[in-house]
User: Fold this.
Amino acid sequence: MENLPIEVLSHVFIFTVPRHDYREQYVSETTNKPHASLSLVCRYWEQVVLKTPQMWSYIHLSRESTKQTLRRRIELSSREPLDVRLNVGYDSDVDSSTTFPGYYQILLETIDRWRSFVFQGIVPFPHSPMQWIPELLPNVVEAAYYGLVEDDTEGLEVLDDDSGELTESRFKPWTAAPKLRRFVVNTPGQFLFMECPLVTELSVSDVGQWWGGSSSLHSWHDKWEEYSTRLAELCPQLEILELS
Assistant:
């Protein structure tokens, strides 16, 4: 293996990096890190790893991240498209942090290179998600929102108040993603994007938890009629709607 040209070995190493899956809700920050194991084999392999930008194109930013590691990964990724996962955990913990917002600003400097974007966290609505999800994702083609709203009164439901009657939507999309094609969300009624004409696939999970249970048949029908109409307007090219 030491006799292989760096271009060939680099190509082999790329296959050791698992494809970042935006559809996976729970991903450890240590996921997709074969770099250490390969680098320990020998000095030559270490140099190949460091000179292979595709091996550094997954960035998972959380409260456990460090500024040095973040900047180093961005540097090593060169100009490669990035798969970005932002895990704010409990939003109140992030707000009290003096470092995380600064790290996030560093990551935002690369936004033109984001190929996929995943948001994960427990947040109050509507201010907090707007703080962490940019107004424009210019080149993102895959995205996911795994957010748990702390206060349902500020929630993301398109309909449904305590009386079971239709209510005006209190949630207004604010993000434009002109190249987005696939989107996953873990609560029906949530749709972050106001400009996403190319979306062809939408996956919605936990439908029964949020819109089942005590909902009457009439209420269920009304919710889906409103939701379907909204999706048809926002995503004229939608081909696949996956519910679970």
